[in-house]
Please model this.
Amino acid sequence: MQKKESYLQMDKNNQHINFSSNGSNNDFELPKNYFDEMQLEIKAKIIEEKLKALVTNSNDFKVPQGYFKQLQSHIPLKKKTPIVSLISSRVIKYAAAVAIILTLGIIGYQTYSTTSTADEFLLADNFATTSVEDYFNDLTEDQTTIELIEYSEETNAPVTKEQNTTVKEVEDIIDDPITIDPTDLLEIEEEDFDIL
Amino acid sequence: MEVTDQQILETYKKGKQDLAFSQLMTKYQERIYWHIRRMVLKHDDANDIIQNTFIKAWKGLEKFREEANLYTWLYRIATNETITFINQNKKRLAQNIDDVAEVLQQEKTDNHYTGEEIKIKLQQAISTLPEKQKLVFNMKYFQEMKYQDMADILGGSVGSLKASYFHAVKKIEEFLTK
Model:
């Protein structure tokens, strides 16, 4: 092939032949790599013929009797049932939007109502005097004693046990303004720095 | 008269899926079976693969695009299933020429193979080929398939398939004549 091309090139150079180097002096087109593939195909065919003379290509594999008749029944095919949606996707979208709005609304309402209750509770005016009085009166002697002992241990404060706390005394405690000594605050800050 | 691929697809579209599938199997099951069997040698293995092939075909028939050929589509599924099976069972399947001889002797005992000594030698020679050359050789030598059909099934160009077949027959000739 290469030799042929070189001859053609030589002839072309000598202006003996007036056609292109690939030998096509017409308008016909050939598939790409046609000659290379043709060579391979012919060579393969020659070897194949030799092989077939040696070993036939007849089929020596066998299948059990009636195999192909029964094959189809051995393949488990499931009937395809079309899935029909009962609710359209549009309805689902609206329902989802409503659900989200409702959820947000409930959460918002709960948050607001909880805050309101807490605020209301913190207002000193709303303290029912009877509630505080009831609390102290409901305490059993043992509970009061234990709590007082614990308190005295923590604060080193003297403990006096008075069982009959009057409403007036309770009101005095609540109304008593808390006074903080600035030096105490300084001490607390210094302690905090020590920890840090 | 054998139904055409077009008729099978029309039957399927009309909602007669079972009938269409039955026609598809009747038309192609034997060709597909032998294509698989030549790759795995054992009937039991070929039986498993062909069942998987047609189950996949049943599932995929709905989405089958008509630009493709039903015949090449089925062959492609079968080829992929076979290669997957071979890869999954590499340790168990016949890997060398001794294994091949053993498998074929067993198939003979089970009356699934009637080949003579030279045929067993040919199968041993085929077993030495790389996977692609093995496929190309089986499709061309035994099934006498056209290169273009092979290209549609296996992918790649006609030229590369011709080269693969040439290398395959050359190696087999050397094996048989040494």
